Amino acid sequence: MDSSAQLRMMVYASLLAALTAAGAYLAIPIGPVPIILQNLFVFLSGLLLGSRWGFASVAVYLLAGAVGLPVFAGGLGGIGRLAGPTGGYLVGFLPAVWVIGWISERSKTRIFADVFAMICGAVITYAFGVTWLKTVTGMTLTKTLAVGVYPFLFGDAVKIAAAVLIADALRPVIRVPGSRFRGSNYKQ
User: Fold this and answer.
1) pLDDT tens across 116-130, in order?
2) C-alpha distances out from residue 40 to 17, 119, 135, Å
3) pLDDT of residue 182
C-alpha cells in the first residue's frame, strides 16, 4: 500500500472513530445498558474498512474513551467505563469489527455476507457484553439477558439494515485499497 492510500485509510478510520463517538451521544437510557448508535458505526467500520483498518478505527475510539475523552455512551469517558457494567460491550467491539471486516473481505455475495458478518459481530459483542455485565452486576443469566440483550435485538436488526444500505452507497465513493468493490454490488 503506498503512502497516499495509507493516509486515506487513516483518515477513513479516524472519521469512523469520530462517528462512533458521535453515535454514543445518542443514548437512550433504559437500564444498565443504554440504546445507542455507536454499534452502527462499528458495523460500518468493518464493512467499509475491512478487518485491519476497522479494528484500528475501533481501537482509536476505545483508546480515546479510556484516556477520558467523553466518547462513550452519554458523553462519558475514562478507564472506569471499560470496567463498568457496559465495558464488555465496548471491549467486544474489537473482535466484532475484525470479524465483520474479515467476512466482508472474503465474500462474493455481498448483501448476504454483509448481513451475516454483522450478525456475527452482534453476537460477539453480546457475548462479551453479557458475560461482563453478569460478572459486574451479579445478576442471573436470565436477568442479564433481559436487560442486556432482548431490548436491543429489534434495534440491531434496524441498524444492520441501515448499515447494508449505507455501505452500498459509500463503497463506490470511498476507494479502499485492495477492495474488490467498485460499485453497488447488491444490484448485480
Assistant:
1) 999 999 999 999 999
2) 12, 12, 26
3) 45
Name 56's bridge partners: none
> pTM for the full model?
0.88
Q: Exposed/middle/buried for 69, CB within 10 Å: 0-12, 13-18, 19+?
A: middle
- Burial level of 52, CB count in 10 A (0-12/13-18/19+)? middle
What string of DSSP letters covers 96-125?
Answer: HHHHHHHHHHH-SSHHHHHHHHHHHHHHHH
CB atoms within 10 A of CB 5: 13
**Rounded CA gap, 155 and 145, in Å?**
15
Phi, psi of 76 (to 5 degrees): -100, 165
The C-alpha atoms of residue 135 and residue 73 are separated, in whole angstroms, by: 20
Helices (H) and strands (E) counted in the chain, each on its own, are 7, 0
